[in-house]
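On to my pick:
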Amino acid sequence: MDFMTDQDVQKYKEDGYVVLDGLLTSQECDELRQRMAEIVDRMDVPEHCRTTFSTYHDEQLKTQGNADYFITSGDKIRFFFEKGVFGDKGEFVVPKQQSLNKVGHALHAYEPLYKNITHSPKVQGIAKKLGLVNPVILQSMYIFKQPGIGGEVTPHQDATFLYTEPLGRVMGLWIALEDATVNNGCLWFIPGSQNSGISRRMVRTLKGTFPLTDFIGRERTYDEEKFVAAPVKKGGVVLIHGEVVHRSAENTSEDSRHVYTFHIMEALDTRWSPDNWLQPTEELPFPSLYTK
């Protein structure tokens, strides 16, 4: 029996997203969390890498785009922090395990547990059910959404950052390693918004110029009342169309909301924009989903 039903496919096509329960077992979720705890325990963070991650327009340019650490992270495992976790001298002012916003962007390539989940039969089955012929993995992230300080992710479309010609070739898989609820910062979507195109892109600037990235186009405003919550049980996955508008609120609860997420692209007859911040490298070309 297919993990993804025909009804799920229809909902994904109509709404731009769909929640599927039971992609991972509870034990698999716990193993991924335990492995990440080990990675964080061993993390050595150079001073210049203490980059704060934010989705606000100006801060994105300043903290992500300006930082070579971010723009060269596509084929590496690197660490991105929440605001206010370092003191004036660069020391942690919160426990190390609670300091991170995310780890990215190549867990799928270099961490065996994450690689196995990314290429699992269920994930490959989802791609095949959606008719993908040559899906490749673009990037992967572990997102912490720390209790009390996990920052808001403002409304956005993934294709702003992961642009293809034609559009409609990118999909995110967002796997809840703990229950994701309205209280701890689950995703919210505007159903059907994947049909409205994109209004802006984040692009690399000319070599030798700063910032390293910039936005072209304009940022849309959205009617808050149109957003629908998409809570997910531990082990469930949300499939996210590259152009659907989505956001998540701050996590003001006492519960974390750990997630493993990655993006895939149908490579058949698709042009990956050379202006995207993320580029395949000699060390890590975008790997095929259908191989391990």
Remarks:
- Helices lie at 6-15, 26-42, 57-65, 68-71, 107-110, 112-118, 121-129.
